[in-house]
Each structure stands twice: as C-alpha cells, then as structure tokens.
Write a structure and sequence with these properties.
- The complex is a heterodimer.
- Chain A is an alpha+beta fold.
- Helices cover about 35% and strands about 20% of the residues of chain A.
- In chain A, about 45% of the residues are buried.
- By secondary structure, chain B is an alpha+beta fold.
- Helix content of chain B is about 20%, strand content about 45%.
- Chain B is elongated, with a radius of gyration of 25 Å.
- The chains are: A alpha+beta, B alpha+beta.
- Strand 21 of chain A pairs antiparallel with strand 27 of chain B.
Chain lengths: ~625, ~375
Amino acid sequence: MRGDEAAGAAPGGPRIRILPDHVANQIAAGEVVERPASVVKELVENSLDAGAKRVDVELRNGGKTWIRVADDGEGMHRADALLSLDRHATSKIRDVEDLRSVASFGFRGEALASIAAVSRFELQTAPAAEALGTRIRVEGGRIVSVADIARRRGTTVTVRSLFQNVPARANFLRSAAAETRAASEALVLLALGNLQASIRLSSNDRELLDLPAATDIGARVRDLWGEEEAGELLALDEERGGIRVAGLIQRPDAARPAGGRRYLFVNGRPFRDPGLLREVDEAYRTTVAPGLRPSAFLYLAIPSGGVDVNVHPAKAEVRFSDAAKVREAVREAVRSRLGELTSAPGFGREDGPAGAGGVGRVTVPVPRVAERPRPMTSEADSGEAVTEGAPQLAFFVSRESGPGDPDSDERGPDGERAGSDGPGQAADADAEAAALAALAAPGDPTRTGPWQLHDAYILVPTRQGLLVIDQHSAHERILFEETMERFTGQGGTSQRLLFPLTLRLSPAEFAAVSELSGLLNSVGFELEDFGERTVIVHAVPNLHERFDAETAIHEMIGELAHGSELVNSARNQHERIAKSLACKGAIKAGQPLSRAEMEELVDRLFATELPGHDVHGRPTILRLTLGELARRFGRS
Amino acid sequence: MKLSITRDSLHAGLGAVAATIPAKTTLPVLSNILLEAKEGSLSLSGTDLDISVSVKIDAEVEREGSVTVPARKFAEIARELPAAPVHIEVDGVEIRIEGGKSRFKLFGLAPEEFPSFPEVEFDDSWRMKATDLHELISRVSFAVSTEESRPILNGVLWQLRPDSATMVATNGHRLARLRIALDGIGAPETDLIVPPKALQQVERLFGAEGDVEVARSRNHLGFRSPQRQVYTRLIEGPYPNYEQVIPSDSDKTATANRDNLAAAIRRMAVVASDQTHRVRMAFSNGTLSFRVQTPDLGEAEEEMPVDYQGEDLEIGFNANYLLEVLRYMPDEDVILQFKAPERAATFLPASGAPDYLCLVMPLRLLD
C-alpha cells in the first residue's frame, strides 16, 4: 500500500482515493485465498455450481507451484469469462434478497478475481463442445492475453506460482505435504456434499482420491475410508419442526478414543458449528465412554430463510434464525436413531451403513430456491441452462429396504414382543383369531424362546434373525433410565425392611452418604444417621425380586465415596447415583432367569430410550441376521 | 443280591427318593440310587450331600447285598414295566431287572462309592406328630428367602421349647410364624435353622399319621420313621431377632373375608407393575378401597366392605406378598393390624387359632 501511495498521491492532493482494482483484488484475496486448499475449494465449488459431473484436481508441490481444476460443467462464453474475473462479478445472485436463499456455493463473486490477483492464472473454458473456447491468462491481477482455443465443454483453471507477488503470504505456507493434506481435506468436504460428481485428486501425478459419482453417502464414505468404517455407521433421517436431519452416525460401540470424523452440511453446504457437535455428543451421552467423539455426517435441510450463510468470508460458519430449534432437531435425531435396535452391533461385517429401515437411498430435499441460480453463464444462454438433476443431494438411506434385506424394520423383537407368534403381526381378521388363540395359549417356549445361554445371555428370535442380549448390560440400561425417571418424580417404590441394615462407614463413605442422602432417599434408600459413622437402612428400592440390597448399597457407597470410571463420567449427582445403582443393582451374569423374567427384561429394555447401549459405552445387544447366517453357511 | 418286589412298591420307593437326586452333579455316584437288600426289605437311598433320603419297602429277599444304580434309567424302566412282580439280581455292579417278559441290564457303581449318611444319634431323639410337622412346615416355609446374600434367611428357624415348637421364615420383606403347643415330647431347648428343601421332603415322605422321630447331631438333623429317613445339613449362624420386629403397638385393626380380600388383590394385581407389584390400600370406617396406578399401563380401583377400627390409613404393598400370606391363612376371616404406613402389617387368623402370624412390610411410593 505504501508503494501505491508513494506512486500515485500528489502532494497536497486528496489523500483518500479509490484503489485500483488489482490492489483491491489483492486485499480481497487475503480473505478468500489463504492457501492452496482455499483455491482448490473455491475452484471446485465453481465447478460444482456449473453442474460438473466430473472434477479433476491436480496439485504440484502442495499446490504452491501448480493447481489445476478441470471440470465438464457449463463453460462460459468469452464475455462471461472476462466478466468472471471482475470482483463481485457473479451469476449467482443479483441483489441482497437473493442472499437469503442462496443455494450455490460461490456467490460473493470474488473468488476468481482474488485468485487471479495473486498468481499466474489461466482460464480455459468452452460453453459447448461445438462452440469456440476462450483462454484467458492473468498475471498478478492483470489480463495479459485472451485467445481463441478449441476445447471440450467445461472449464479448466490453472493456478501457477500462488502468492508469487505476495511474499508475506507465501512465507506462511506450510510444507507441501501439509498443504496437500489441507487441499485433500477441503476436497473431502466437497465430495461428501456433492455425491453426484465424480471427483479425483492427484498430487505430483500420484492419485490421492478417486471418487466415482455416488448414489448414497454410504457409498461415498466407503470410497473415501473403506468398507470397515462404512459398516460402523448408522443411517438416520428425521424431520422435526420443519428441520430435516439426515446422514450417518457411528455406532456407539465402534467409537474410538482417537475421535471420529465429523461433518456438517446445511442445505448441501458444509459448515462448522462446535455448538451443534456438542449436541451430537449430548445425544450420545451414556452410550459411549466419556470423552469419545463418534463420527457423524449430518445433513440438515432447513427452509430458506431459516439459515444465513453469509456470515464468514470462507463461508465455514452459518447462522440459524432459530438455533435452539436446530440444536434440538439434531440432538433428537441422533438420540432417537441410537434408540433403535439397528444401532446395536451385528455379527460379522455389515453391508454399509445400517439404515433405520435398511440400507438404501432417500433424497434429502434441499429447500427449493426460488430460481435455481445459474452457474457462470450469460443471460442469453439461460434457455439451455443448467442441470439436469441438480447437484442436490441424493442421499443414501431409504425407508424401503432392498429385497431380501434382513435388517429391515427391527424395532423390537417381532415389532412388539418376543415370540414369533405374538399378537403384533395380526393384521386381518383371520390373523387376529390366530393371534388371540396364541395369546391365550403361548407356544412351546422351547421353540419360541427366549432362551438363556450360560445364565448370562438371553437369546431372542426375531423375524429377521436372532438378538443376543447381555442380561446384565440390558438390566443396567433399564435401571439407569428408571432411576433417572425417579428423580423427576415418576413412580418408583421403596420396600421397607423388617430387619434394617446397619452400615459402618469409613469417614469418606460417611461424608459421601451425608452429602447424597437426599438423592439416595429419592431413589428409595431410606437412611438414618445412627451416629459414630453408622447408618441404618430402613428401606431399599424395589428394583426386582432378586435385588440384593445389602450388597448393592455397600458397593454403591464405596463407589460414590471413592469414585470409579463409571460414576466419574456422570454429569451430575443424579447421574452418579443412577449409574452406580444401575451397575450394582442389575442382575449379574450367572443368574438363571425364568422365561417370564427374560420376557419382562426384554420388554423393559425395549421400553427404554436407548435399548441397544448400556451405561458403560458397551452394547447390550448383538444382532445376528438371517442374512448373515445365510452368508456364513454359504447359502447366499 | 437277589430279590423280588411288586412293581407298585418299587414305584413308591423310587418316587420317594427321586426328588433328592441332583439333576446335575460333578460326582457321578450322586446320580445313582443306593439299593440295599436286607431282612425282607429293600432300602433305596439318594443324596445331594445336603439332604439325604432313605426309604424301606417290603421285598422278598433271596440274597442280601447292595449296589448303586443309575437313578433316572432305573426309574424309567420301573415306570414302563408291566404290572407284574419285578425280579432284581445283582452281580458285582451289573443289575438285571426282569418284569413280565421284559429283561434289562444296567451297570451301576460299587456301593462303597456312595457317600455315607450323616451320623445322627437317635438316642436323644424326640417325637413329633406328623400332623404337627406338616402344619408347621406348610404354613411357614413359603416365606424363606431365595436370595443367596443372607444364607441364614434361606433357612426356616425351628425353635424348640419345653412346651412348644415354633417355625419362622422370612425374606426380610415378609415373615411367617407358627407356634404349636406341645407337652413333654422331650425335645431339647434349641434353635435350629433348617433348609426348606429338607422340610419339604419331610412333609412329603412322612404321611399324616403317626409320629416322626427327630434327632440332631452338631451339624445335621435327622427325621425317621420305621420306613423312612431324612437327613439334612443345618444352616449355622444366629437367626435375626424376629420377635423384636413383630409390632406390639398396632392400633388399627381390620377384619375381612380372606377369599374376598385375595380375589380383590388378584384383580388389582393385573394392572400392577410387573416389577413392584404395588397395590395401594386405603382403610376407613367400613370400607377398604384399593387403587393401582401403573405408568404406561393403566389403573384399577375396587372397594370392599371391611370391619375396620382406627384412624384412616393408606398403605402400599407388594401384591404377591399379600396373596402368599392370605393363601396360608387358615381361617375364613383374617385380621389385619397396622400402626402406620411405613410399619409392618400383621396378619392373623380371626379365630385366634392356630397361633399363626404373618408380617408384611409396606411399599412406599416415592414422590
């Protein structure tokens, strides 16, 4: 700036002047173009906005010396191509009103001009195969040549020597490897948001990504990170208060300490929102060990007007008009998905994400924009405009399951109750009569289950296969949720004891009991301070018939006084007590159960909010599907 | 060993012993029955090491001797044999069984492998009428605890006093006690804690008539009649002081028809929680009202006339405990006594006889 001033300002003349365009572009470039990754992002977004089916990205030296983005989208006529290099030249919005409903990626109209201002820039474009192509070269923001070329439809942008004229910025670039990683990550984000495009990335002629066009997000995740990761994901699709939340979340038991991949999109646009991710963590509460951050790929569809994307120059952040509603929608969508049976792990490999209703596809409708903005193309050509099938997201889950899909629609065993002849299936009159008969005289239990295995697991046959339930884990989940409900005053009974228990406590234990006596009382432990660190227990929660109150209260007090991994993960004292009581009060492995007890346990498990997950971050249920059995026996 | 026996006697003998044979055991000989032929009778014995049972049946013994035979197969064969005399001949551990035109051979184990029965000296024995034993056992043993955390409560307390025998059982939530007056049976003054399984065998094996001779050693108790013997391990340890928890200050009394009361509770229990079985009872002058509310399930209400004296009272119970207690109440009418909603309720037969009492601790609704 000083240079400009020195060169242009006459002594005594006006000190405030309009900057020449190329200077303004350099300044703007500072905002938009931070590093090669941001160039890649801007160019690929333009390609996608132009309806490209295929985008090839090449980098050399991390993009510092060479970036080329080639697409097969709508190209530009010469006039448009020249105009596109003007700052704030954009075909995507026309006035401020359009900003509210913008659905394309680039719209600020500064990308090309900004990039061209800080590099040796070449744009090749042709609007159609038979039309004449245009090649424009720009150096340091000044157009140095415009020429006719012959080329196929689409646009190719080559950016050489990025920041050659901005040494300060160039010096801040990191190693080629780091810049390549950043560019790759930017591309991954775009790939997750644009399934319809085939996207490739190579660096120094080595292929890093080769993503075919995908029909569902599960396929894209598999292409990006492999079968195994895709198999750990659960597909969800929920709408709440006009906000649709679709996507993939990780099965809780698959969450690893290293942390998961987390991507948020709103109306197809990626954004960052730590607050929203906290809601995701909130939804996972008690299903994963504390501190674990499971993967989440969430796609929000919010009616236009509900979200403002013009907050941040790099457009990484958005503002919701009703943020609380969005947070709730995300939390509830994840939570309710974790409450479904298919969120429990299966045996063997999974065929991609488990859908709420099987693996398949559904389109997430992005709210219609009044008029689909055109990619950089002139008014005159609007007739042939963009886009069969618009880039809007065709995502992956589907309610209709594939033929023979064994995982479909598992909510509880047989929909409602265990036992294949339960009343749940009765649809018409004949079936109803049969069901009534079955209800009055239940089938032979040895044939219909549930069965207990090694006094530790309950086997429940379902229409789709078999559930293996860990009786202790399952009971923990039940007791945890029931105890939490007690704190809110719902039900719960306390059994008075004929022979009160006398507990002699250590100082730490006594302190813990004194502090928590009110809460212990509200879950059913009636305690009396007898002096000398002795406590009399007059009543205990009526948890189940085999509840060994004496052992449980001893263990609980020890745990509450000295802490444990489990209770330390609790958010508050209510949860501490509920977790401890659940763990100590639940029936143990090794406990033989009657058929009625097993049925009750299963029924109560499926009445909980998160039946598939215990309070330690372990699964309560494993699913063995008929499909998996068929596969293992070579029948498929 | 060689003998003949009627098929029905064999059935009876096997039936008496079979319940003692453990279904699963690590000691193979325990799944066998010990057969001993001696002086015109055949003894059959079984044991699970805690409880041992022996019965003697008439037989025509040609050659004395003993052997153990696999219990289940032996019983199945006996069941299928035609109605004809059964001939049994043993050679070493080979047992030949003949009935009608059927012949079987089973392989047993040497009698020396069979565990010897506890040595209980009957020199200091006392005699009980079988009917008294039946009465004590049947009205009390239902109340024992099935939880393993307090082994003492897994047993029935049997208190012998110079003029009475009392049995008590409790699981800490409800209690049953029956006292029977005795005169001069020569029993030692002692407290025994007996596994209920053994008492059930006693109840089953000693018919309603006659006397049963009872004796104890340090760790065991023996019951015998000329034909039958039951031995059991005793549970050690001090039994909780149950007398202390029997309320003496109850000031509210209701008298109700036992069967009507039970029927009402059964109806209410239909909508009670599977988990807590809680029913709420409200006593006021002349009326007992029930109410059950189970979240997510439903509600039920009922009123019944009742003879009630005292202040109005609302109290909750586990319906199962109430039904159990009522099932064992001997009289048509039952007296219920209360002090307060958090104190034990007492159940008594209205006629005052026998000297029978049950306690049920209430359930408190948390709110």
